[in-house]
């Protein structure tokens, strides 16, 4: 019975991507990238590795945690300027804030980044190194795709530091990277329409524009810059 319970909990924890930051210098580095005196949203505070130092330099920290036990623990332990919101960060309403921080739970990386992009908050996020490569990818590379386009439509992306698995407990199987996202003027007004367009476009990522009937160009979809994709969207959708 005890083993059975342990197995079920293990699966649950994996689904929650619970790898806790245990290297104080990594936590200090991430928090140093957040300007002082702001209202900050933190997704997945866990055991508070970022939350506590963040609270010390911020006006308020809204800590959104899905795990009920961790949320309750944090409510009891955190200073009064930490507002714990128990729930799924993909579903709960995000409070008004100036900045976003998260060691992103791996299982929700893409939808969370898309939700963040629609809010255009300045952010520092830790993601799998492969995701960081996708965010920073240049046209023509294998990592370049819809996620690159969606995030870069709203942000300038800087991959600042790679973190080895051992900075987390339990260590994940992959390396992570700290990424700074600085809002830029959005590349389009109709982001939802743009998302539908890029979904269609990248479902044929190796096809040429001529083959897709979009232009006489023999360039392939994955070789197009963000600006070229925006231009195609404008002409094809009459925007
Ligand atoms: C990678 S851990 C990071 C924990 C802590 N920030 C740290 O660095 O030690 C991810 C955290 O996000 C929480 N979490 C997972 N999915 C979530 C979701 N959809 N919404 C909010 N929190 C979530 C997990 O319970 C866990 O505490």
TrEMBL record:
Belongs to the class I-like SAM-binding methyltransferase superfamily. rRNA adenine N(6)-methyltransferase family. RsmA subfamily. GO terms for cellular component: cytoplasm. InterPro entries: KsgA/Erm, rRNA_Ade_Mease_Trfase_CS, rRNA_Ade_methylase_Trfase_N, rRNA_adenine_dimethylase, SAM-dependent_MTases_sf. Its EC number is 2.1.1.-. It comes from the Archaea. The keyword Plastid does not apply. Keywords: Cytoplasm, Methyltransferase, RNA-binding, rRNA processing, S-adenosyl-L-methionine, Transferase. This is Probable ribosomal RNA small subunit methyltransferase A. It comes from Pyrobaculum ferrireducens. Gene3D superfamilies: Vaccinia Virus protein VP39. Specifically dimethylates two adjacent adenosines in the loop of a conserved hairpin near the 3'-end of 16S rRNA in the 30S particle. May play a critical role in biogenesis of 30S subunits. The keyword RNA-binding applies. NCBIfam families: ksgA. S-adenosyl-L-methionine binds at residues 19, 21, 44, 65, 88, 103. It is found in: Cytoplasm. Residues 26-185 form the Ribosomal RNA adenine methylase transferase N-terminal domain. CDD domains: AdoMet_MTases. SUPFAM superfamilies: S-adenosyl-L-methionine-dependent methyltransferases. Pfam families: RrnaAD (PF00398). One of its GO terms (molecular function) is rRNA (adenine-N6,N6-)-dimethyltransferase activity. Its main location: cytoplasm.
């Amino acid at each position: 019975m005890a083993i059975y319970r342990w197995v079920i909990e293990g699966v649950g924890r994996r689904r929650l991507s619970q790898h806790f930051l245990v290297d104080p210098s990594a936590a200090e580095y991430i928090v140093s990238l957040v300007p002082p005196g702001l209202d900050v949203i933190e997704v997945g505070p866990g055991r508070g590795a970022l939350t506590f130092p963040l609270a010390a330099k911020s006006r308020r920290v809204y800590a959104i945690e899905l795990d009920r036990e961790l949320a309750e623990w944090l409510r009891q332990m955190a200073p009064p300027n930490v507002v714990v919101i128990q729930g799924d960060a993909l579903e709960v309403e995000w409070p008004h804030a100036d900045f976003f921080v998260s060691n992103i739970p791996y299982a929700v990386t893409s939808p969370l980044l898309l939700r963040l992009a629609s809010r255009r908050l300045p952010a520092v996020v830790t993601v799998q190194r492969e995701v960081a490569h996708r965010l920073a990818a240049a046209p023509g590379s294998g990592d370049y795709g819809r996620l690159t386009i969606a995030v870069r439509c709203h942000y300038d992306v800087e991959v600042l530091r790679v973190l080895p698995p051992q900075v987390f407990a339990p260590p994940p199987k992959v390396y992570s990277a700290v990424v700074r996202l600085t809002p830029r003027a959005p590349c389009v007004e109709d982001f939802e329409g743009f998302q539908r367009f890029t979904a269609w476009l990248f479902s044929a990522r190796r096809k040429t524009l001529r083959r897709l009937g979009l232009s006489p160009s023999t360039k392939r979809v994955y070789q197009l810059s963000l600006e070229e994709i925006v231009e195609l969207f404008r002409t094809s959708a009459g925007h």
